[in-house]
């Protein structure tokens, strides 16, 4: 019970109500003390009126008047020259004097608190203003025992009433919290448990229904989260199925490509100059395809295997990429240019870097083709003491906002209409496998530039 939200709310409500009542209690007791003393002053004023009506009042009658008023002495000053006095024997000396005329609230609270905390009976003098313009001032003396007992009795009744109010209020708030907060929260928790049992089931996504704004916002946020998670799980399931299908296709494709390699060996023996020039490139392309199929089968997952480092001339890789892309141009007016220093050697995985540059160049070609305008694709490379830098630029129409938002995400960041986005996803994964990075440097209506950076490390000192 105490560990529940409603239980703790019940306790806190009772405590806070009691604290509020305590803050009210002290001023209330001070007010009660002031009323008590004012009543004694009024009684004493009435008793003094008897002396005013008949100055020959007997001592017995004076004592009875004072006893009925609850005081020992009365001094009523009606003008500067005349005072009416009722007096009797006092049990002790006067301990304190209190002036109730225009007394500030702080003084009344302080005096009431001191009286509550002083158990000894004392004789006090009280000065006040006569009622109904009955004189200049009235002064009485009385004992504090009745005053203190009346204050204690009043305080206990106030505390008892406060306790009843706090308990009643706490119970009402407890019930309100259970209806308006605890039940909706339990409903949300129930939806979360149900969703956790089968997160791929879209029917278990929570449907917001809370009437409280904050709870409804929480439900809407949870609904968005569950919807995204369900979509992600379905996508991962599709990717897993796709991975299995790719592995099967790769197995059969490897066999087909291996057979094709045997035929290309014979083609290389041809005396035709064109065949001799194209045959090595065909052999390289088939070799890369076979290696890719073998890597897919060996790894068995969507991730790429680690790079196999080797030293090679970058211009050779770029030439192979451009030659392959030229075959796919067809009738489109697309030109290729490169600015690769002849002596620029890299230490990386040649096959993986070919795939990185090939995917970026292929995306650039498809973007220009879709624009149905002439264009140019440029590959430029440079190096410094820390890294190799490769830039692939095109004069295409630039990336669409959706492509920029989901850049490098498979099946979401396609740069061309109908594209899957796998090219950029593969390119950045292979680049980061080398410890480098792939960045979009610029994209606008004049074209797009991607930048590949590969760290040198200690590789630049090797062979």
TrEMBL record:
The keyword Kinase applies. Keywords: Kinase, Membrane, Phosphoprotein, Transferase, Transmembrane, Transmembrane helix. GO terms for cellular component: membrane. Its EC number is 2.7.13.3. Pfam families: HATPase_c (PF02518), HisKA (PF00512). Its main location: membrane. It is found in: Membrane. GO terms for molecular function: phosphorelay sensor kinase activity. It comes from the Bacteria. It catalyses: ATP + protein L-histidine = ADP + protein N-phospho-L-histidine. SMART domains: HATPase_c, HisKA. The chain crosses the membrane at residues 6-30, 158-181. Residues 248-458 form the Histidine kinase domain. This is histidine kinase.
